[in-house]
Amino acid sequence: MAAMNTANGMCGLVWINGVNFKNLREAGNAYGPWADIVPNSVNFDFESTAIKYDKGVPTEGYEFPYNTAQSVFIWSGAPEAQPLSVNEIKRWLENEGKGKFAYANVTDFTGSLFVRTIFHALAGGAEVFTSPLTANAAMEARYMQKSPAVWQFLNDIKPYLYQDPATGGAIYPQTHAEVQQLMWSNLTLLDCAYDVNLAGRQIDLGNLPPHTVAYVLEGQPGTIANTNYVAIPINAQSRAASMAVGNFIGSLEAMFTRNEPEGWGALQSYNPKVPHIEGAGWNTAFNYLENHVSPAYPSVEKLAEFRLGELHSTYVERIEADWHTFVGFA
């Protein structure tokens, strides 16, 4: 963005999240706050960590939610018997679930996802680690205080993970495809993925039994989500028009259209507990769309209630490195 060009930019609204938003804000090139004051902001919970923080960066009204992705656990075991918290996962593994779960090495996105879910449960999320880890003595001290419980948990469950038939030791597959293959072969019963539709697709393909469900952890801590947003550049020529478009994006009608499986099929981050949404039957409509895709899909109410925001990338990098040090190679 050209220096001092604050009025005649070529772009009125940008689709953005993560490091791009961080850079836009730090450079002073984002207009706002506006997102939490336009009329359709009432359709969202701006205090939810999945909206309040964009990968650990406070949004502070400079970003308006667009679509979201949310992680889920996938269970193909006995109906209604799935573990609903990280502690229940541990108890299940130590008993009837021994050898029935595997997660990938953290070099795989879903392996990192599982480890970060444990981190959220035992150390905390963006509401605890409120600023980047790098060059921050207070956050470094907090990380060093809280992270050992995570490595202890992961080492505690290591003997109960799926074991390599050749060596008898726990294995950490290199890809999620390898983890899925174990589940398709009925060697494991539990998986996690950043795709709420994955279980339904695999049921349709005959890879998983019909009673398989995708679900969120309800007891501890929830499941991690990744929201994307729209933002207004500081040099937007008509900020009022940009806000009007952003406000339209947040309308229930626009969100429903984006959620339709025949179109985008994108998960929406609206707040299903808002009275004007709940009372008008919108949750029923959104759930109809998802159940039309697959009955294995969790309800929009459950997804929203247990949705967690991502940590800042500096924590993700450190968590992955420390997993190799304290768990993977320990």
From TrEMBL:
Q: What is this protein called?
A: Uncharacterized protein
